[in-house]
């Protein structure tokens, strides 16, 4: 295969190159994420994720982008599956490590979310990932499990693992997450907007 290369622009002339293979694409659809977030904030984490798993509520848009699906939800534990395709490949011919990291970050956070009451959210502070095995399309469906190690009032600690279709361990992670009580923030905002006077 021979490709022309424009040294002035630094771009390969793919239009005139032969052998790049058939151009591929896929359609990604999702529901309004703001509406989804509002619904999530109005429910405790456990029933919210059970509703998503049962198909009663739409999944977050990132789920559609990365082809993930929540398949099991318990208190302090969630399981997602992910079916990678070639759109997630890096230049080395394998699924980008960032996609696997995102999967680990997702189940880590969602596991903690299942322990939180209505109006309490979370955000990742730190995640440490160990990559143990390369992932390709031939790896098949990945299964990611997130488990809460400790759910504190301000900080949560979780761990996660990803296995391929054969059951081999692909990657592991430990995560630290900040617990954010949005109820107090909302009340503070309401008081501030009325010069400290409660809204009747």
Protein architecture, described:
The model is unreliable at 186-194 and 196-200 (pLDDT under 50). This protein has a single domain (26-192), classed as Hotdog Thioesterase (Thiol Ester Dehydrase, Chain A, Roll). With 200 residues, the protein is α+β, with helices and mostly antiparallel strands. Strand 6 and strand 7 (155-163) form a beta hairpin. The chain contains five helices and eight strands. It is globular, with a radius of gyration of 21 Å. It has helices at 33-41, 45-53, 61-65, 97-113, 182-192; strands at residues 5-6, 11-12, 68-74, 77-82, 120-131, 142-151, 155-163, 169-181.
Order of helices and strands: EEHHHEEHEEEEH
The CATH class assignment is Alpha Beta
> Which architecture name does CATH use?
Roll
Q: How many domain units?
A: 1
Task: Classify the secondary structure makeup into a structural class.
Answer: alpha+beta
User: What's the average pLDDT?
Assistant: 87
Query: How big is the Rg?
Result: 21 Å
- In the sheet with the most strands, the strands line up as 3-4-6-7-8-5
The CATH superfamily title: Hotdog Thioesterase
Q: How helical, in percent, are the residues?
A: 25-40%
CATH topology annotation: Thiol Ester Dehydrase, Chain A
**Beta-strand proportion:** 25-35%
Low-confidence stretches: 186-194, 196-200
Number of helices, counting only DSSP H or I runs of 4 residues or more: 5
Secondary structure: number of strands: 8
The end-to-end distance, rounded to whole angstroms, is 73 Å
Name the shape in a single word: globular
């Amino acid at each position: 295969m021979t490709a022309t290369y424009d040294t002035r622009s630094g771009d390969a002339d793919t239009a005139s190159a032969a052998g790049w293979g058939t151009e591929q694409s896929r359609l990604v659809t999702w529901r309004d994420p703001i509406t989804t977030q509002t619904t999530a904030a109005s429910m405790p984490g456990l029933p919210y994720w059970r509703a998503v798993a049962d198909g009663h509520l739409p999944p977050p848009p990132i789920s559609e982008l990365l082809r993930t699906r929540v398949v099991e939800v318990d208190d302090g534990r969630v399981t997602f599956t992910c079916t990678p395709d070639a759109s997630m490949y890096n230049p080395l011919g394998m699924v980008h490590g960032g996609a696997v990291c995102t999967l680990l970050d997702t189940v880590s956070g969602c596991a903690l979310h299942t322990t939180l009451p209505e109006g309490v959210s979370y955000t990742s502070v730190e995640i440490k990932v160990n990559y143990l095995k390369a992932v390709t399309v031939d790896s098949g469906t990945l299964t990611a499990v997130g488990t809460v190690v400790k759910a504190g009032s301000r900080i949560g600690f979780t761990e996660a693992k990803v296995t391929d279709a054969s059951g081999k361990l692909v990657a592991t992670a430990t995560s630290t997450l900040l617990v954010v009580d949005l109820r107090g923030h909302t009340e503070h905002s309401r008081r501030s907007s009325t010069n400290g006077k409660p809204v009747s």
